[in-house]
């Protein structure tokens, strides 16, 4: 398994980064930790599946990755590669203008979500599959040309997201009310519609993945990280761990996940 990261941006902050995954040793299996960032990817290989909450989804072609609230299993049984882009948390709403909660915990085919936008993206991925630098630039140019759905609510949620990321999830939902002009109920409804998760769940997710990033990069011992990220005690950390990872820390740390280590460096 080879994971390559491309630190490329568009002019309006929709792209977080781009990536490619090349899988030549099969069968390949890994869990995928939710990142807090949605994505769009082209699945070139056959026999790739996602299993979430005991539901199996076959993925192929141009695919969206909605927000996930827990790990899912990724399985590949045929040699192939994927190329995609991690997006800003509000990017899917800005591009499609739909209730993003409808994409949560899903990998829908882009063609079923918006045929017009599919017809713009799909030829780029097909024509430049073997020329990634050109593919990346074509994707950036297309994203820069899209008409976006942006209003006051989107701007407010952008402010909230930026603050959550700046604080690495070490805050409360009530802290967001101090910087956005919304009641808590309105914030909950609009945040979930634009991001796909509630603000409380998203805050907990960002705190957890920032901690896991530092752990996977071997920067700080796990016990030190637990207190650095304001977990009240070890049991509170374990509660979040089981929530997002669907297994205990003891079970997880026994295993090796090279894909997680590869992509967590660039979260």
Written account of the structure:
- InterPro entries: AraC_XylS_family_regulators (IPR050204), DUF6597 (IPR046532), HTH_AraC (IPR018060).
- GO terms for molecular function: DNA-binding transcription factor activity; sequence-specific DNA binding.
- This protein is 44% helix and 21% strand.
- The protein is globular and about 50 Å long.
- With 267 residues, it is an alpha+beta fold.
- The protein is built from 12 helices and 7 strands.
- Helix 3 packs antiparallel against helix 4.
- The chain folds into 2 domains: 2-145, Jelly Rolls (Sandwich); 152-264, Orthogonal Bundle (Arc Repressor Mutant, subunit A), CATH 1.10.10.
- A hairpin with an 8-residue loop joins strand 1 and strand 2.
- Strands 1, 2, 3, 4, 5, 6 and 7 form a 7-stranded antiparallel beta sheet that branches.
């Amino acid at each position: 398994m080879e994971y390559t990261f491309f630190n490329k941006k568009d002019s309006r902050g929709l792209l977080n980064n781009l990536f490619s995954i090349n899988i030549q040793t099969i069968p390949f299996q890994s869990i995928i930790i939710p990142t807090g960032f949605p994505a769009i990817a082209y699945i070139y290989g056959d026999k790739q599946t996602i299993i979430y909450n005991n539901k199996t989804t076959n993925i192929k072609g141009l695919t969206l990755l909605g927000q996930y609230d827990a790990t899912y299993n990724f399985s590949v049984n045929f040699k192939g590669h994927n190329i995609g882009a991690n997006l800003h948390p509000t990017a899917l709403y800005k591009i499609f203008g739909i209730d993003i909660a409808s994409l949560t915990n899903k990998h829908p085919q882009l063609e079923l979500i918006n045929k017009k936008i599919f017809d713009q993206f799909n030829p780029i991925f097909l024509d430049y599959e073997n020329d990634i630098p050109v593919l990346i630039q074509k994707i950036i140019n297309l994203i820069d040309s899209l008409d976006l759905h942006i209003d006051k609510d989107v701007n407010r949620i952008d402010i909230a997201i930026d603050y959550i990321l700046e604080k690495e999830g070490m805050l409360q939902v009530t802290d967001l009310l101090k910087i956005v002009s919304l009641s808590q109920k309105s914030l909950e409804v609009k945040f979930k519609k634009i991001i796909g998760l509630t603000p409380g769940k998203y805050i907990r997710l960002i705190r957890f993945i920032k901690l896991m990033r530092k752990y996977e990069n071997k920067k700080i011992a796990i016990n030190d990280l637990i207190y650095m990220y304001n977990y009240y005690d070890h049991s509170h950390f374990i509660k979040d761990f089981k929530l997002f990872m669907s297994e205990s820390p003891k079970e997880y740390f026994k295993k090796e996940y090279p894909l997680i280590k590869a992509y967590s460096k660039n979260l």
